[in-house]
Amino acid sequence: MSKLNWGMVGGGAGSQIGPAHRLGAGLDGAFAFAAGALDHVPDAGRAYAQSLGVAPDRAYGDWREMLEGERVRDDRVDLVTVATPNATHYEITKAFLEAGFHVLCEKPMTMTVEEGEEIVRIASATGRICAVNYGYTGYSLVRHMRAMVARGDLGRVRLVVAEFAHGHHANAADADNPRVRWRYDPAQAGVSAQFADCGIHALHMASFVTCQEVASLSADFASCVESRTLEDDAMVNFRMEGGAVGRLWTSSVAIGRQHGLTLQVFGEAGGLRWTQEQPNQLYWTPLGGRVQTIERGEAGLSPEADRASRVTIGHAEGMPLAFANIYADLAEVIRAAKEGRVPDPAADLYPRAEDGLRSMAAVHGAVASAGRQGAWVDARPPMFRAP
Ligand code: NAI
């Protein structure tokens, strides 16, 4: 089977997330890294792409040059990953979708709800995939949690508790460091800092696992480092369309916490607990029973979990493999479309533009709520509200 061609915008030398995408896209041999506009400095981007094996004529100086260069090629890229700073996602994603490319966009997909709705409309009108990289949903045991909820192991879900709390911006003396400061500056970060950066991962995870969307929320935002305009800590209560109650804590001042993404789901018949820093174990407690450890790779897991598991039980899998599962889903769906067949249903789990839009509605809803002493607000995008 020939490889699909993959291209990347952003993710240049020294970037945080670029290497994880390249590892993820390359893992299964489904994608060839064929083109890139990797850096905001054109010559640096061209040189870095070539150092990674991209042919000189496809190592572009900027994304517009890449769009023009790729659209006329017979072997144009099948998928473009957008891994640039947040404020550029909308413009770049929109342009590639409109030119007929499938896109995997980093989160947050857009800065506003209106832009999010526009991306959903364009993806629908063009029939192109617009995936959003909520990459932590790619973990095998996260997919197993979803399968357990869907097949009724927990009974009706009563409560979901999500956290994404780290301590890497806790040093008030370092708050003026330019690498940190922009994140809390509304001119560069938008309306929200910590909730838009990390909280939306946890909120999306809650929806992904429970198969319920967020309906309404109430938020309390705090700037624990006093010089900050935007929040570095948030507590968000939410209600889900299927009736589940949600609690979410996100923070960047939680000293001692590293990545700090956890999810707990409590139903009528049992509870689940998963921590991203130990992603190969899932803790399940049936009502009236003992805690059981479910190991990634063990026999008898769901097809969704099996599909997302690569190495034998007992050998740790981590974040680049979770990203690889998003790429594996996309490769399967793109290939199926080329071959005119129905994709494997277990691959139909990648997060998409609708999820990116829901996150943006939640961010703007949380900002509005926090500004009104935690008043409850509708967290659904206007286009998904009943007339
Ligand atoms: P970064 O600042 O470390 O790297 C950004 C890269 O994009 C740099 O190489 C820069 O030169 C390049 N760039 C900037 N503007 C560009 C343009 N117009 N055209 C081409 N390249 C351009 O940023 P980081 O931390 O890698 O974040 C990038 C995106 O990934 C952000 O939207 C962030 O929210 C997201 N992210 C997602 C994570 C996830 O778990 N899904 C984790 C970390 C970041």
UniProtKB/TrEMBL annotation:
Molecular function per GO: nucleotide binding
Domain Gfo/Idh/MocA-like oxidoreductase N-terminal residue range list: 5-134
Coiled-coil boundaries: none
InterPro entries referenced in this protein's UniProt entry, alphabetically: Gfo/Idh/MocA-like_OxRdtase_N, Gfo/Idh/MocA_oxidoreduct, GFO_IDH_MocA-like_dom, NAD(P)-bd_dom_sf
Residues in the signal sequence: none
Annotated GFO/IDH/MocA-like oxidoreductase domain residues: 142-272
Pfam families per record: GFO_IDH_MocA, GFO_IDH_MocA_C3
Protein name from the UniProt record: Gfo/Idh/MocA family oxidoreductase
